[in-house]
């Protein structure tokens, strides 16, 4: 199958255009959430799969920019153990592409009963979750038909960024970034070709990053799992050193996501030193290292294979380039293996867990 003929490819390429109108379409709701959440002492996210990776991105932004502690919720605490969570002073953000996740809705229902400020992020304004939460942010991505979530993930990331900006009382204009991002899609396409060819024979790999970009490592791992059947495992690079690194040997495939920018200049040197150290260590262990980055110069002289992306003004924005690169890589590898990324075995578009 030619990857260009798949729904996954069509949908991931639709993301830049979808992002163009999200701020305007959700502006009123964002303002209302910012007002309602002024007294929140913390945030609590609830999601599964790809949506949970978007919430990991939200967590890093909210904690780093707002100083707002964010807990990643475990729905089973409510649906299996019937816990009475005290969320009365919390901002609860529930994320689900379909808006039909039963366990996510149960947590929101309990949060509503507590008096929490509840926000749903979905791609369906008429979905049960969108109606259940007090506020709804919509992806407006039209129906996503491929099982692998791509354009909706990019929209979830963007809405998460807009939400944090609104909570910070800012009106940021991302139009210049969106224009640059859209114009760089062909470049990202070309940049993933060589890596895709090498991953066609892969059966397992690790994906690493830290901080905001870790959300993209986890999402890339999921995409390689569900569309390529590769045993891909993502880790925060800081956690990887605490045991899992022992699995790395000669030829172990590793993908590292390294953003040139952090959130502010004061942390960029530490940020850069951290991912350079990670790359050096993986190469010392004999890994077959691929680096998705907008900082090619940081790895000069290393025997790593660079997947170059343009990058954004800070790590929040570079995440969108990383997401697209990961999605393109998975789609190409899946088709190269003779698989159909639109219909992975054993999976459905909407997964209901309770």
UniProtKB/TrEMBL annotation:
Residues 33-173, 195-344 form the SIS domain. The keyword Repeat applies. It comes from the Bacteria. Keywords: Repeat. Pfam families: SIS. CDD domains: SIS_GlmS_GlmD_1, SIS_GlmS_GlmD_2. One of its GO terms (biological process) is carbohydrate derivative metabolic process. The keyword Repeat applies. One of its GO terms (molecular function) is carbohydrate derivative binding. InterPro entries: GlmS/AgaS_SIS, GlmS/FrlB_SIS, SIS_dom, SIS_dom_sf. PANTHER family: AMINOTRANSFERASE-RELATED, GLUCOSAMINE--FRUCTOSE-6-PHOSPHATE AMINOTRANSFERASE, ISOMERIZING. This is SIS domain-containing protein. It comes from Candidatus Borkfalkia ceftriaxoniphila.
């Amino acid at each position: 199958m030619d990857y260009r003929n798949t729904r996954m490819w069509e949908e991931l390429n639709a993301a830049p255009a979808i992002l163009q109108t999200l701020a305007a379409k959700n502006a009123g709701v964002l303002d209302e959430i910012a007002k309602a959440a002024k007294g929140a002492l913390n945030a609590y996210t609830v999601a599964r799969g790809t949506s949970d990776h978007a919430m990991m991105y939200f967590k890093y932004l909210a904690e780093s920019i707002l100083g707002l502690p964010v807990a990643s919720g475990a729905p089973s605490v409510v649906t299996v153990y019937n816990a009475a969570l005290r969320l009365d002073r919390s901002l609860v953000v529930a994320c689900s592409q379909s808006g039909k996740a039963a366990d996510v809705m149960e947590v929101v229902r309990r949060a509503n009963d507590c008096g929490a400020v509840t926000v749903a992020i979905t791609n369906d304004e008429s979905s049960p979750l969108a109606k259940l939460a007090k506020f709804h942010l919509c992806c407006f991505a039209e129906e996503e038909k491929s099982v692998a979530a791509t354009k909706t993930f990019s929209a979830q990331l963007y809405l998460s960024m807009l939400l944090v900006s609104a909570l910070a009382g800012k009106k940021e204009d991302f139009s210049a970034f969106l224009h640059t991002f859209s114009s760089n899609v062909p470049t990202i396409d070309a940049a993933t070709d060589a890596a895709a060819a090498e991953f066609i024979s892969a059966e397992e790999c690790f994906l690493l990053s830290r901080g905001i970009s870790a959300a993209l490592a986890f999402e890339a791992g999921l995409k390689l799992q569900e569309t390529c059947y590769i045993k891909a495992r993502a880790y925060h690079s800081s956690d990887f050193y605490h045991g899992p690194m022992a699995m790395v040997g000669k030829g172990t495939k590793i993908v590292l996501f390294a953003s040139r920018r952090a959130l502010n200049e004061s942390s960029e040197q530490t940020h850069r030193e951290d991912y350079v150290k990670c790359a050096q260590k993986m190469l010392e262990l004999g890994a077959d290292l691929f680096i998705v980055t907008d900082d090619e110069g940081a790895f000069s002289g290393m025997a790593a294979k660079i997947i170059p992306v343009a990058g954004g003004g800070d790590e929040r924005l570079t995440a969108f380039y990383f997401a697209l690169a990961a999605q393109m890589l998975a789609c190409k590898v899946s088709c190269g293996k003779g698989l159909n990324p639109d219909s992975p075995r054993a999976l459905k578009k909407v997964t209901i867990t309770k």
